[in-house]
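[SOLVED] Predicted holo structure with pyridoxal-5'-phosphate

Edit: marking solved, answer below. Original request kept for reference. I posted the sequence and ligand SMILES and asked for the 3D complex as structure tokens.
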Amino acid sequence: MDDKLMLMIPGPTPVPEQVLLAMAKHPIGHRSADFGKIMAEVTANLKWLHQTQNDVLILTASGTGVMEAGIINFLSPGDRVLVGSNGKFGERWAEVTDAYGLNTERITAEWGKPLDPEQFRLALEADVDKQIKAVVITHSETSTGVINDLETINRHVKAHGKALIIVDTVTSLGATNVPVDAWGLDVVASGSQKGYMIPPGLGFVAVGAKAWEAYKTAKLPRYYLDLGKYRKDAAKNTTPFTPPINLFFALQAALRMMQAEGLEAIFARHHRLLAATRAAVQAMAMPLLAADECASPAITAVMPSGVDAEQIRSVMKKRFDIVLAGGQDHLKGKIFRIGHLGFVSDRDVLTAIAALEATLQELGHEGFTSGAGVAAAAKVFASH
Ligand SMILES: *Cc1c(COP(=O)(O)O)cnc(C)c1O
């Protein structure tokens, strides 16, 4: 049915009506006083969201573009970097550091398992002559629904003293606590189509003082992604290149909504959606890919047995207009992923779970009592 599409994927995520309406205007000039006012407001609110006094810069790029900027502005060819790789995105950042000729050392974990902070501690402690220039981590690994223990890994980076911590928070920022200043995170990247509740197109990167020091001597080539340019122009409440003005209207509206809800309430909502989704999936006798201790508040990966994951997605879409994400790379066909990030409410999860039950019945999946998934989710909502 037209206009009934419901996105339960980890990006692009649903966009609230007031954000959509904010975009339905003529663009204004990005050197105008009116744009300057918007830029000032959204920059202040981005600092609030990141819990930081550091610069938070806005780029016209997807998440990958800002993460690439976050890597290349602070490093030089041949620099030794540790990159955590336990999924599609962690591996992507290792591909970026490889592409730029950095001396990349991958610290890996099986897809579906979290990175082991001990491996970072050992590598960092062994580096007595301080050759490791950066540690690159994906906080919430969207491909598997695993959240890595950034706080502990970062503690080991701080004990090393020299290395920067560069973090992909694309599906953790705005879903769970990422206190940039309290943890001393040097470079933090995120994108508009995830926790921000706005369409794709904007990327955000928070940069701290230690990273700006490294920027001065970093020798990788940079031009469009030169963060110094964005910082200089942000001081004048503008951007170095023409930004997608209408997405700034959207960002302004979305950040106001987030402020009205409050950080604690936003995090609590995501953790509640996660708990309800996991309880429901288990009640439907389908295994979860990630363990409880490392489950991402943005996304739940499910490994159905006896039913094809792609068939589930296909029925969900055709019959119920609900879009779920599939598995990536070697997990394709083996898992499906339920996004619960951004503008998602308890009702959305109840709807998706009810549709999933109907889908499983249609596909002849047995081994659970009809209604058990909805009941399990409802029980979580009743007690949170
Ligand atoms: C979505 C996502 C990105 C960015 O992907 P783009 O398609 O470039 O926006 C990066 N990291 C993670 C963990 C993501 O989920």
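OP edit: Residues 263-283 form the longest helix (21 residues). Thanks to everyone who chimed in.
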